Amino acid sequence: MSNEIRNLDPKPLWNKFADLNAVPRPSKKEDRVIEFMKDFGNSLGLETFEDDIRNVIIRKPATKGMENRKAIVMQGHLDMVHQKNNDTVFDFDTQGIDMYVDGDWVRAKGTTLGADNGLGVATIMAILESTDIAHPAIEALFTIDEETGMTGALNLKGGILTGDILLNLDTEEDDEIDIGCAGGVDVTASAVYDEEDTPEGSVGYTITVKGLNGGHSGMDIHKGLGNANKIMNRLLFGGFENFGLQIVEINGGSLRNAIPRESVAKVIIAGMYDEAFVFDMQEVIGDIKKEFSTTEPKLEILIEKADLPSKVMQVPAQEGFLRAVYAAHNGVYRMSADMEDLVETSNNVAKITVKNGELVVQCLTRSSVESSKFDLANALRSAFELCGCEVTFGGSYPGWTPNVNSEILEVLVNIYEKQNGEKPKVVACHAGLECGILGTNYPDMDMISFGPTIHGAHSPDERASIKSAQKYWKFVLEILENIPVRN
């Protein structure tokens, strides 16, 4: 790991982040980072254990003079989103993140950085290791699988935690204090379909959509970014209607919580339409690139000759599938009527796989209003059931209802204003923070979320601001000193 990261200020934070990022920790494969965190807690002589679902809890007593303060839970998630550029050779299961400094930013070479939520986890580690930072009694809660199911939070039982206040360190703008978030539900459409022999006289093509920004399907969903699956479907639909295009296979997107950056489809057309197909597609590509010229300047769409396959998707199944994907809502569905500029409900058409007689479409629907969440989920279900798909809902988790009268909110607002000469933005976000879920078993716990500035989360463009980390660290230390006294 580069020394330039370890030498950044504040050193306790960046050193722990470097330690953490040396450990592979993709979602649902957290065995190594769980053991790493338990070894860390035990090495400090602190009470350290994992619960039934494998969340890690480490307890540290209050420093001298802070024993009468309310106990706090400092919480972050151990897993990270694993995304990489197409031309980057990297194995998230075995390699640590390769980081570098770029001006005010810490970045990774061709992959996600893991600052979401690695900087939050590193913060907690630095506090646990410290010998000179004043703090009340701390329960450090390191949850698993936040990014692909909120599994750790959903399965944390009541009665394990004893803290009065929860500090969630998973917000990504340093001038924001989060007091609410969206819930979510996975919507999955699947079907089997019949294939037929490739007609004689056909020509094979590979269509590639790439170069999109991608991003967080909650925090970035309102930015008008391109969705590779929707763009690909537009191309396939036009090719089918105008030239009888038939699908061989599609592989688009990767994770539900990442706006899809790339999609590749293998198709065939009748040889008699070869030149006309390419000419027409280039016109459509020009239109799409013009539409996205502001938000997606690096968008590339390639149409290249390919080997002829032996089998293709039958036309009736293909037509229903293409129309269903076209009808499936993607992006903002409704803005909040109660909080200015807050996305209330959205959907991300995240991953599409079509191959060998099976198709799967994976979506993540988010909303801060439970009824609206399922309204959109049912709209998606209806579109896909009309083409014969089986649709399931899974991984549903609740949103976090804002508490504007929170005691810890008042503490944070006052400290921020004193340190920065202006008030912070008190917001609710469209991402899925774990606070709402944790609150179901700990309803009396006062919860707040904040963090350093991180841009491009869930994409290889993820980067963390060095200057913001310094501002954030100072904020954290004063918060710990000013936790309210127990009643």
Question: Describe it for me?
Answer:
With 487 residues, the chain is of the alpha+beta class. It has 2 domains: 3-182 and 399-481, Zn peptidases (Aminopeptidase); 185-397, 2-Layer Sandwich (Alpha-Beta Plaits), CATH 3.30.70.360. It contains 12 helices and 23 strands. It has helices at residues 3-6, 11-21, 31-43, 115-129, 151-154, 228-243, 274-291, 315-327, 370-385, 407-420, 435-441, 466-481; strands spanning 47-50, 56-60, 72-77, 99-102, 105-108, 138-143, 165-168, 176-181, 183-192, 195-197, 202-210, 246-252, 263-270, 300-306, 311-313, 331-335, 343-355, 358-367, 390-397, 425-429, 446-449, 454-455, 463-465. Strands 9, 11, 12, 13, 14, 16, 17, 18 and 19 form a 9-stranded antiparallel beta sheet that branches. β22 (454-455) and β23 (463-465) form a beta hairpin. The protein is elongated. GO terms for molecular function: metal ion binding; metallodipeptidase activity.
Mind summarizing the main beta sheet? 9 strands, antiparallel
- DSSP helical segment count: 12
**Weakly predicted, low-confidence segments:** none
Distance between the termini: 46 Å
Beta-strand proportion: 25-35%
The CATH top-level class label of the largest domain: Alpha Beta
- Within CATH, the superfamily of the largest domain carries the name Zn peptidases
Number of strands: 23
Structural class: alpha+beta
Describe the global form: elongated
Quote the CATH topology of the largest domain: Aminopeptidase
**Structural domains: how many:** 2
GO biological process, one term: proteolysis
EC number: 3.4.13.18
Cofactor: Co(2+); Zn(2+)
Keywords: Cobalt, Hydrolase, Metal-binding, Metalloprotease, Protease, Zinc
